[in-house]
């Protein structure tokens, strides 16, 4: 089969996006399609440019992992006007009347809500909590904050004593947690909006001899597997980006074969809560594909 | 520090007249006139033009899409906001300053605009004007701090950058705003003579500012101030007023860029534009301006803009691996700049 | 090129050529300097003197020609190379680092060490000693910023001497200093000679050349046009060789000034700089400002021209009180000042001569608010002719010779005619011919009704030009002399006593 | 452009001497000596020290935790990497250059190190040395490009920044590496006399470089080169060699910072350090260095570092809303810098 699949992705630094692209590439190879990918370095303006650049090559489908939900609309619009079908992954276009064939994603609000609910149960429904946010204003930050807030409504005993941003960065999370622990010696748990930040928080706690501090994250990165086993961190919500990437290409193939109508509009993938109890049932590659295996 | 190699070599290659045209010599000969003309044309062709041409040739050879009309239009529309911001940044750099707040001003003025429009029902035209006003105001603060306040421009604009990016998040507590009026978002797809409106706007701004810098006394004084503020002051230029004006223009242009961005994305995001800072300054400097001030101009900046725009576009067309793209871009920038040096010698 | 073998002692330069692109600035110049002697190097502005010096001192590489130092081939490829071989250059333009201390400037590139660290104590002591022999009294620990031109010139000379050179080039060392400092510098040259050092001495003050040089070489348009080996070399011969024709001094007695006061200064003072300055300047009058270096003449005129603040006193132009706080305000009121420091205050060396000249005038030159490159070039060409500037007006001023830069500086302030013109050291580094031309212009401007203040460290210049002379001493106005009263002795005694 | 206000006021307060120190004046009087001494002490107390003190007083009043031993130690350990990078950045800025690659060098040298160690089984000591070598090499490239290549430092280091950040992702295709030897990660928790090893390392580097800048001719020559490269060259300084050396040191120090980072987190991320660029330069400039070169020093940089470190720490202790933190930091920077100006007058 002859054809070109184009993908525009927010960045190629986060393992999440790397795995998603790996999944896409693998599926495209399997289907014998050419695969072009552009990474926007977390710049939504830049990403619109890249979408335009990809469209110049008239691909058969555009797989679109937008930098944020608001910017997504413009990319979709551009693709629509070029007559290229769009498969949105991870970020759903929030406005505009653009058409997408399907939206494949983790329900981030739900993932955060479930994770926090689990965490609050571990805390016995009361105690001090700190939240480490991702880059402020980014969709993942907004949705995960929202999910945690929803969980908090059911747990009046949980007191949020500190909210800081660590910009998805482990080292920044380390510093922020040091400071939070200084000001809040009674702190019991940290909700990191990503695994990297959960790890940074846990390492800061360990350094401050607070091994009892609970720390959870979202992503299910390979690095979390050992960390959970060792008790450094307690849980993570594993997403399935590799699989999402493969699905996106498979859907694209369906469109090319004229079977586009059979694709559901919304394909939420459940995130899996990984804790010490079930960690041995999974492999990192279940979530992040072969790339993850190399990283463990 | 690296003054323009261009101006330097220029100086070197043209001195015969100063030797020949002694007191006794008559009016300049024809060949001397020609040489002078050649000199002044050379002076007009600044920055790494050769580099740009080389890059373009390479890409049109490597990708069949590069020279298509659609792609060329894309390139132009893709560089619009950066270009508009770069005009302001170039002016600031010309007077020997720097403006780190340019990206954050984009975010703040866009958010204030969208917030007034959505949450207070302010008519969009007015909320946009307020957005522009915010940009100008931040520029004013930058200008006043770095003149009367005697704070280094780097520090002053670092502070306003920080403050603006925080405020941009604060107005809507980090949430994005979507849904601008249709006539406004329509501007993003408006074509005039087949050219995108936003690109024409950018080119228009470049032309007006180039005209100002070349033909208006105030504009011309920017070179004097950048060359030596004391010399400019003693020559009767109100250097403080001009400097403040320049920062205000830079802020205003950033706000204009925010409108272009808002129309294109049909949304306002509190981090919009923030990561463009380095690209904006890079465009100006690649175009031949020196951060020491006093050299550079609109033509050079435009060439710098095209170099960055073409490089990014071409990489995407060629499907270079995303991790390697920055490597290739880094190398290409150096080659583009060095090509120019070599030929200038 | 001469073929005989190089001398086993001395600096032997043969056939030195310097081309900038297609243009040749120096055309096969020979010069021989024996240890313990002094060669005077003269020539018009732009003749190539400084270029020759740069070749010898390794600042730029020659395009052709060879040099030998004490019989050994000498091809300095950097200034440090030349310094190591014992050749030092005192540049025409003062080049010190304002932020660093005097002592550090002196030892820059050769800081003395002791126990692995810079030996500051030794450095300061040595600096103090060397400066003292030059008559420069300045604390070696203070930064150079803010020191007068004369002191800076002294530091430049001390810097060269500290490197114990065997050959020293002085490029117009006395252009920026007063008579007394000039005498001290010349004494220093004599001392160096007597210690066996070979000296190349460049100056437009021909009596100095006459006094110091054992041999005089004259350059014109990059050629060596004359050479004298017998002293004393007659001054008129030197001048004729420089300009390439018979040169006659024109003597114009100043036309009388009128009764109308243009500028009135009353009780002017600025804390820490000068106090109690009061005078009137009449239409058509040239008022000379004399005094020793550092007497505060520059400070006074800078304040009058709005460049520095004035703490006390009033200034009025044509009877109208002026309240200005900036040069721009002063210029609006009709007061223009040609600053003394052309590099730091007067010219932007990276911009073209024409652009420099039009800078203060752009608003006036503009038509419909626009000023074109052509208009700038026209004005530049007009001023080029008027001030006899040698060089291309569309090139950066920095590539012009020092004297021609000075002419551009004057031209910059005289595109249109102000009410009051202040010139601070107007003929610094200008050759004899051009000097006469500048005097002539100043006199013409005065007779047309302008009021002119001339600050100059060359007493001869002040005395020759002015209707009246105001003498300053240590920041105070110590006397006002009419043309007739102003004999050198009287001026000097007022300058010293205060 | 904003030369240091410090140096300026200094200059002004000393012009009287230039009047007095004419030919007639005898040896400096006692009071003149005193004034000169006062001047040189003033010269030693640079940058916004007053600002730092004010910030510290404010925080110790607002948070009971601020002055605790634990918190102070935290502050010191939190600023270690930025501090080490800032030393290099300060040297580069001192010579009138700029190094944008510093953050990307952290990422690249850490990744190369980790990659060699994990994927090739290179003993960690050697892989670390290679990592340091990578840092020095990038510095060398920066130095050569900006001297022999006559490329403006901004452009040269922008290019290497771009290239390094791409390569850092490329070596492991963006994946992080975890699991360094225990003895190495142990360094992160090592305390000497109760002080974190990394902080001592940073302070040590500051002291050595300060000594070099003050007492060694090569170090001193940085001020001369920054003041005027031409003057320095004419005085016999090999300006090119010194400049290259400075860029190499900056690259090397960035690589050292990468080791500190790696030991602390027991992992190597391909984006580690990249976002620190602006903070690093800010530290130097807030500390009183001018981007024009020739002014600034280690003491000022250290004060700038503490200002940034204390501000961030204090905000976190007070749990200021993350949206408002940048606003407060922006304002605080201006106040800190202006306080200093006021008192210097
Ligand atoms: N870097 C340069 N580029 C081009 N021309 C130059 C350069 N340096 C000097 N020249 C030209 O060389 C000629 C000789 O200049 P030079 O400075 O040697 O003159 P000079 O004899 O020292 O004059 P003055 O008495 O005014 O100092 C001048 O016409 C000058 O314009
Ligand atoms: N605001 C200022 N900024 C920089 N330099 C200044 C300022 N005011 C005065 N100077 C310099 O300080 C020096 C002292 O000036 P002053 O008027 O005392 O000397 P002077 O009598 O003119 O002697 P000289 O012949 O050395 O200029 C001058 O070189 C002048 O250029
Ligand atoms: O899940 C990832 C996060 O871990 C972060 O890297 C940002 O993007 C999100 O989608
Ligand atoms: Mg000369
Ligand atoms: Mg003077």
UniProtKB/TrEMBL annotation, chains B, D:
Task: Give the protein name, as stated in the record.
Answer: Ribose transport system permease protein
Whether Transferase counts among this entry's keywords is: no
Tell me, in one coarse class, where this protein mainly resides: membrane
Membrane topology per the entry is:
Multi-pass membrane protein
> Where is the chain membrane-spanning?
49-67, 79-108, 120-141, 153-172, 192-213, 244-265, 277-308, 320-339
InterPro entries linked: ABC_transp_permease
Record region (Disordered): 1-30
For this record, the Gene Ontology CC terms, alphabetical, are:
plasma membrane
Record key words, sorted: Cell inner membrane, Cell membrane, Membrane, Transmembrane, Transmembrane helix, Transport
- Note whether Lyase occurs among the keywords: no
Record's subcellular location: Cell membrane
User: What Pfam families is this protein classified in?
Assistant: BPD_transp_2
Q: A GO molecular-function term, please?
A: transmembrane transporter activity
TrEMBL record, chain C:
Q: Which residues form the ABC transporter domain?
A: 11-246, 257-495
Report the GO molecular function annotations.
Answer: ATP binding; ATP hydrolysis activity
Question: Origin, by domain of life?
Answer: Bacteria
Look up and give the organism this protein is from: Paracoccus isoporae
What keyword terms does UniProt attach to this protein?
Answer: ATP-binding, Cell membrane, Membrane, Nucleotide-binding, Repeat, Sugar transport, Translocase, Transport
Q: What Gene3D superfamilies would the database entry show?
A: P-loop containing nucleotide triphosphate hydrolases
Q: Where is the signal peptide?
A: none
Could you tell me which SMART domains the record lists for this protein? Answer: AAA
What's this protein's name? Ribose transport system ATP-binding protein
């Amino acid at each position: 089969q002859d054809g070109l699949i184009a993908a525009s992705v927010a960045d190629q630094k986060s393992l999440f996006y790397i795995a998603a692209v790996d999944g896409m590439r693998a599926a495209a190879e399997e289907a014998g399609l050419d695969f072009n990918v552009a990474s926007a370095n977390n710049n939504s303006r830049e990403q619109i440019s890249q979408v335009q650049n990809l469209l110049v090559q008239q691909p058969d489908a555009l797989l679109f992992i937008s930098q944020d939900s608001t910017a997504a609309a413009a990319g979709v619009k551009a693709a629509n006007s070029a007559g290229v079908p769009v498969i949105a992954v991870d970020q759903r276009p929030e406005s505009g009347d653009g058409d997408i064939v399907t939206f494949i994603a983790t329900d981030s609000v739900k993932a955060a809500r479930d994770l926090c609910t689990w965490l609050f149960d571990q805390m016995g429904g009361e105690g001090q909590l700190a939240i480490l946010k991702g880059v402020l204003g980014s969709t993942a930050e907004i949705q995960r904050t929202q999910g945690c807030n929803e969980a908090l409504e059911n747990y009046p005993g949980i007191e949020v004593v500190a909210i800081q941003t660590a910009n998805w960065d482990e080292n920044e999370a380390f510093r922020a947690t040091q400071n939070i622990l200084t000001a809040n010696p009674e702190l019991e748990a940290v909700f990191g909006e990503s695994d990297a930040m959960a790890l940074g928080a846990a390492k800061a706690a360990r350094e401050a001899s607070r091994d009892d501090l609970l720390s959870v994250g979202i992503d299910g990165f390979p690095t979390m597997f050992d960390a959970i086993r060792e008790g450094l961190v307690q849980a993570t919500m594993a997403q399935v980006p590799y699989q999402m990437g493969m699905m996106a290409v498979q859907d694209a193939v369906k469109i090319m074969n004229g079977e586009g109508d059979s694709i559901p509009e919304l394909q939420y993938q459940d995130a899996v809560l990984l804790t010490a109890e079930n960690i041995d049932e999974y492999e990192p590659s279940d979530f992040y594909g072969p790339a993850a295996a190399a990283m463990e | 520090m690296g003054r323009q190699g261009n101006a330097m070599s220029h100086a070197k290659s043209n001195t015969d007249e100063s030797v020949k045209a002694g007191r006794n010599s008559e009016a300049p000969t024809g060949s001397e006139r020609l040489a002078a003309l050649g000199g002044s044309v050379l002076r007009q062709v600044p920055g790494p033009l050769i580099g740009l041409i080389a890059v373009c040739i390479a890409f049109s050879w490597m990708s069949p899409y590069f020279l298509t009309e659609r792609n060329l239009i894309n390139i132009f529309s893709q560089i619009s906001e950066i270009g508009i911001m770069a005009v302001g940044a170039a002016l600031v750099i010309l007077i020997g300053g720097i403006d780190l707040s340019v990206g954050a001003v984009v975010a703040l003025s866009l958010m204030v605009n969208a917030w007034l429009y959505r949450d207070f029902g302010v008519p969009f035209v007015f909320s946009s004007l307020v957005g522009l006003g915010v940009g100008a105001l931040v520029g004013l603060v930058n200008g006043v701090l770095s003149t009367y306040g005697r704070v280094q421009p780097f520090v002053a604009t670092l502070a306003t950058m920080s403050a603006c990016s925080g405020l941009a998040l604060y107005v809507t507590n980090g949430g994005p705003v979507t849904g601008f009026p249709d006539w406004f978002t329509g501007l993003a797809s408006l074509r005039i003579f087949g050219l995108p409106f936003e690109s024409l706007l950018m080119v228009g701004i470049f032309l007006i500012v180039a005209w100002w810098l070349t033909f208006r006394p105030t504009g011309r004084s920017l070179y004097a101030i950048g060359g030596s503020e004391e010399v400019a002051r003693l020559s009767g230029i109100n250097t403080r007023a001009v400097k403040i004006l320049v920062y205000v223009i830079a802020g205003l242009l950033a706000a204009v860029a925010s409108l272009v961005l808002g129309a294109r994305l049909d949304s306002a995001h509190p981090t919009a534009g923030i990561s463009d800072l380095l690209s904006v300054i890079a465009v100006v400097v690649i175009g031949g301006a020196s951060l020491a001030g006093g050299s550079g101009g609109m033509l050079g900046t435009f060439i710098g803009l095209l170099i960055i725009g073409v490089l990014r576009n071409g990489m995407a067309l060629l499907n270079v691996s995303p991790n390697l793209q920055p490597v290739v871009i880094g190398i290409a920038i150096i080659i583009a700049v060095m090509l120019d040096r070599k030929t200038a010698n | 090129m001469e073929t005989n073998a190089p001398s086993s002692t001395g600096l032997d330069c043969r056939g030195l050529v310097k081309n900038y692109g297609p243009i040749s600035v120096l055309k096969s110049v020979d010069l021989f300097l024996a240890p313990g002697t002094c060669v005077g190097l003269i020539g018009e502005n732009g003749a190539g003197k400084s270029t020759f010096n740069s070749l010898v001192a390794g600042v730029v590489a020659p395009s052709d020609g060879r040099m030998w130092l004490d019989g050994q081939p000498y091809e300095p490829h950097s200034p440090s190379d030349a310094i190591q071989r014992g050749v030092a250059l005192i540049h025409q333009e003062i080049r010190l680092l304002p932020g660093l201390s005097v002592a550090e400037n002196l030892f820059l590139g050769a800081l003395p060490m002791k126990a692995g660290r810079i030996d500051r104590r030794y450095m300061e002591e040595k600096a103090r000693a060397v400066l003292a022999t030059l008559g420069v009294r300045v604390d070696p620990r203070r930064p150079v910023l803010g020191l007068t031109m004369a002191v800076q010139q002294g530091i430049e000379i001390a810097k060269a001497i500290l490197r114990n050179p065997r050959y020293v080039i002085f490029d117009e060392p006395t252009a920026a200093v007063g008579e007394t400092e000039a005498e001290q510098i010349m004494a220093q040259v004599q001392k160096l000679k007597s210690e066996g050092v070979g000296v190349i001495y460049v100056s437009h003050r021909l009596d100095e050349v006459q006094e110091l040089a054992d041999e005089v070489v004259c350059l014109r348009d990059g050629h060596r046009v004359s050479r004298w080996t017998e002293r004393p070399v007659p001054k008129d011969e030197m001048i004729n060789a420089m300009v390439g024709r018979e040169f006659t001094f024109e003597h114009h007695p100043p036309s009388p000034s009128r009764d109308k006061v243009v500028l009135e200064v009353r009780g002017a003072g600025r804390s820490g700089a000068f106090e109690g300055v009061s005078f009137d300047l009449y239409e058509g009058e040239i008022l000379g400002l004399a005094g020793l270096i550092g007497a505060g003449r520059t400070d006074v005129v800078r304040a009058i021209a709005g460049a520095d603040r004035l703490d006390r006193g009033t200034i009025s132009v044509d009877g109208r009180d002026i309240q200005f706080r900036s040069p721009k305000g002063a210029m609006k009121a009709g007061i223009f000042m040609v600053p003394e420091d052309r590099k730091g205050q007067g010219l932007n060396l990276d911009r073209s001569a024409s652009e420099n000249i039009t800078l203060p005038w752009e608003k006036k030159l503009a038509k419909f608010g626009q000023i074109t490159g052509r208009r700038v070039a026209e004005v530049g060409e007009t001023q080029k002719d008027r001030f006899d500037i040698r060089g291309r007006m569309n090139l950066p001023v920095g590539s012009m010779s020092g004297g021609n830069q000075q002419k551009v500086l004057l031209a910059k302030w005289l595109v249109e005619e102000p009410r009051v013109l202040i010139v601070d050291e107007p003929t610094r580094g200008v050759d004899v011919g051009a000097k006469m031309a500048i005097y002539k212009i100043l006199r013409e401007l005065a007779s047309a009704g302008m009021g002119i203040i001339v600050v100059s460290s060359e007493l001869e210049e002040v005395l020759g030009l002015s209707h009246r002379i105001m003498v300053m001493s240590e920041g105070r106005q110590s006397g006002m002399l009419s043309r007739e009263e102003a004999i050198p002795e009287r001026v000097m005694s007022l300058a010293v006593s205060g």
